[in-house]
Design goal:
The complex is a heterodimer of chains A (about 140) and B (about 160). Chain A is an alpha/beta fold and about 140 residues long. Helix content of chain A is about 45%, strand content about 20%. Chain B is elongated. Classes of the chains: A alpha/beta (about 140), B mainly alpha (about 160). Chain A: InterPro entries: CheY-like_superfamily, Sig_transdc_resp-reg_receiver, ST_Response_Regulator.
Chain lengths: ~140, ~160
């Protein structure tokens, strides 16, 4: 194999999502909102934030919200992640929704969150390394 | 000048490593630093600022809830604040603070007043100690840059 062919055959890890994403970050913690927004920015997306599930639902109420992806925290005041996800699906929101759980959540709790209408679940802390391949995989599906 | 830069870079490396070895910081802090770049040069400082503000607010909430002079101790409020602090300390890599929150949560669930008070005192000391140490680290960074040097990437592993 020539040097050029060898170079081309090596898999280079993507650094951005396959398409530029418009993301809604739903989390009651300001640090997590800041971190997740920065990760989205680094993988080529743009983001908006909501402080809890109820705010996320209100954003979609007029039918004009158009997010490719929603990062939905599980535990939040006013309206939690499962309730917000269920409501958004009832409102015919078709965005990819990734649930953000903690390592303390057990299998049953994660399964119940998935049942609400998530595309996938990831445990905190999120990183470019765990989020980017998942997003690209979901975009392929 | 080169000798000064080298010395400062060495100090920075050694100090950074010591913070990890003494469990003040964990891998999540490394992840945080990866999110900082030329486009967001103050990102780490901004996030840490949010964290330390959180510490002040949550510790104050916990102290109020543990104040027996105002009536029965509100372990539910203490527990909720500990949960939040555990989350935010985990998000920034504040390893000792996070570990304390685990014990603190257990004392809350057991409604162990003395245990909770001890943990609250320790959390207060730990976050202030971390704040001082990170300030020293950022000061070293500043000195390196002011001397015309580059802040070294430190391989913790």
């Amino acid at each position: 194999m020539s040097k050029v062919e060898t170079k081309m055959s090596k898999q280079t890890k993507p650094t951005e999502t396959k398409k530029k994403l418009n993301v809604l970050i739903v989390d009651d913690d300001a640090i997590n909102r800041t971190l997740h927004a920065r990760i989205i920015n680094q993988i080529g997306g743009v983001s908006k934030t909501a402080g809890n599930g109820e705010e996320a639902v209100i954003l979609h109420r007029d039918g004009n919200a158009s997010f490719d992806l929603i990062l939905m925290d599980k535990e939040m005041p006013e309206r939690d992640g499962a309730s917000a996800t269920k409501k958004l699906r009832e409102m015919k929101v078709t965005s990819m929704i990734i649930g953000v759980t903690t390592l303390a959540d057990n299998e049953e709790e994660r399964a119940a969150f998935m049942e609400a209408g998530l595309n996938h679940c990831l445990a905190k802390p999120l990183s470019k390394e765990n989020l980017l391949p998942l997003i690209n995989h979901l975009l392929d599906a | 000048m080169d000798a000064l830069i080298s010395q400062l870079q060495r100090q920075f490396r050694d100090y950074t490593i010591s913070l990890y070895q003494q469990d003040f910081l964990d891998d999540q802090f490394t992840e945080l630093k990866k999110l900082q770049d030329d486009g967001s040069p103050d990102f780490v400082a901004e996030v840490l600022s949010l964290f330390f503000e959180d510490c002040v607010k949550l510790i104050s909430n916990m102290a109020r809830a543990l104040d027996q002079t105002t009536g029965a101790v509100d372990f539910s409020t203490v527990g909720a604040s500990v949960h939040q602090l555990k989350g935010s300390s985990s998000s920034v890599g504040a390893k000792r603070v996070k570990a304390l929150c685990v014990s603190f949560k257990d004392f809350c669930e057991a409604q162990n007043f003395e245990g909770c008070v001890r943990c609250l005192q320790q959390v207060d000391i730990e976050y202030k100690t971390l704040k001082t140490k990170l300030q020293d680290l950022f000061n070293l960074e500043k000195q390196i840059i002011q001397a015309g040097g580059i802040v070294p990437q430190v391989d913790i592993n």
